[in-house]
UniProtKB/TrEMBL annotation:
The keyword Lipoprotein does not apply. It is found in: Mitochondrion membrane. Residues 32-46 have a biased composition (Low complexity). This is Uncharacterized protein. It comes from the Eukaryota.
Length: 78
């Protein structure tokens, strides 16, 4: 069976292959991800900590957050 698309005869097999190629090709390229050079990666843990600001409402809250992070890091070292 053939279909007429833009004035040309297109066979059923070609339509099926086109749909499959588009679906699998799109899935492949979508799962490739971006380039790794687009995001700067911190060199060490200390640089990563320095790059993330602590936005606390008060100094007490900021101290609480810092203590919580330190305790969580100590637990992860065990």
């Amino acid at each position: 069976m053939t279909y007429t698309i833009l004035g040309r005869a297109v066979r059923n097999e070609h339509l099926a292959l086109g749909v499959l190629l588009t679906a699998f090709g799109g899935g492949y390229f979508a799962s490739r991800g971006g380039s790794s050079s687009s995001r700067p990666v911190p060199q060490s843990v200390q640089q990563a900590k320095a790059s993330v600001p602590v936005s606390a409402g008060s100094s007490e809250e900021e101290e609480f957050i810092k203590k919580f992070v330190e305790e969580a890091e100590k637990e992860n070292k065990h």
